[in-house]
Amino acid sequence: MKILVISPHPDDETLGCGGTILKHKDIGDKIYWLIVTNIDVKDGWDKDIVKERQKEIKRVAEMYGFEKIFKLDYPAAKLDVIPIQKIIESISKVIFEIKPEIIYLPNRSDVHTDHQITFKAAYSCTKNFRYPFIRKILMYETLSETEFAPALPENTFIPNVFVDITKYFEKKLEIFKIYKSEIMKEPLPRSLGSIKALARYRGSQIGVEYAEGFVLVREII
């Protein structure tokens, strides 16, 4: 089975579905990674930070064993200035190349605009009459983005699909540690303790030690 994980920024894939990615890989699925944004010196980023980020992406990809990485290289935190049709076309091209059966997307109501636009653009590339090979679409939650959405019913992330990642949780943490600049101090959302707490909470909902929760957007059986 072919799986496509779409992340607005590097680290979203690990926070949202790192354990699930490892589980897919373990059972023999082919995993692909699409990173929508990137950082660049021309956008004001320090060259050493840019260089380090590319090293992190390479190491993370090796840890997961992705079949291929796709980088759209749109400027981070600036997706709102890019014509959405251009983003849709870029994502569509990748989806047609891979022909994935399962797609993981960021939550549509995340507070970060890049996450909202990524979901909107990617979901536009899932119409079954154009992409008949897609069988399942799931939204993942991203700490420091999902929980900060406005407290309105339409923004609530209520998972209805759970994946037992107990066997893979420690490796998920190990991979997240590669993103050194993204690790927050305790008890902030992206601290290692908070990542563990969320996984324990999701695990408690299905009676296992650690789990990841998803919202099923569509499934064709």
How would you characterize the overall build of this protein?
This protein is α/β, with parallel strands linked by helices and 221 residues long. It has a single domain, classed as Rossmann fold (3-Layer(aba) Sandwich). It has a seven-stranded mixed beta sheet with strand order 3-2-1-4-5-7-6, with helices on both faces. Strand 1, helix 1 and strand 2 form a beta-alpha-beta unit. It is globular. It starts with a strand and ends with a strand. The model has no long low-confidence stretch (mean pLDDT 97).
Secondary structure elements and pairings:
Layout: E1 2-7, H1 12-26, E2 30-38, H2 47-64, E3 68-75, H3 84-98, E4 102-106, H4 113-123, E5 136-140, E6 161-164, H5 169-176, H6 192-204, E7 211-219
Parallel strand pairs: 1-2, 1-4, 2-3, 4-5
Antiparallel strand pairs: 5-7, 6-7
Helix pairs in contact: 1-5, 3-4
**Which class of secondary structure composition applies to the elements?**
alpha/beta
The biggest sheet, with number of strands, parallel, antiparallel or mixed sense and barrel status, is: 7 strands, mixed
State the CATH superfamily name.
LmbE-like
State the low-pLDDT regions, or none: none
Would you count the extended β strands for me? 7
CATH architectural name: 3-Layer(aba) Sandwich
Mean pLDDT, as a whole number?
97
Order of helical and strand elements: EHEHEHEHEEHHE
Overall geometric form: globular
Question: What's this, in brief?
Answer:
The protein contains 6 helices and 7 strands; from the N terminus they run βαβαβαβαββααβ. The protein is of the alpha/beta class. α1 (12-26) crosses α5 (169-176).
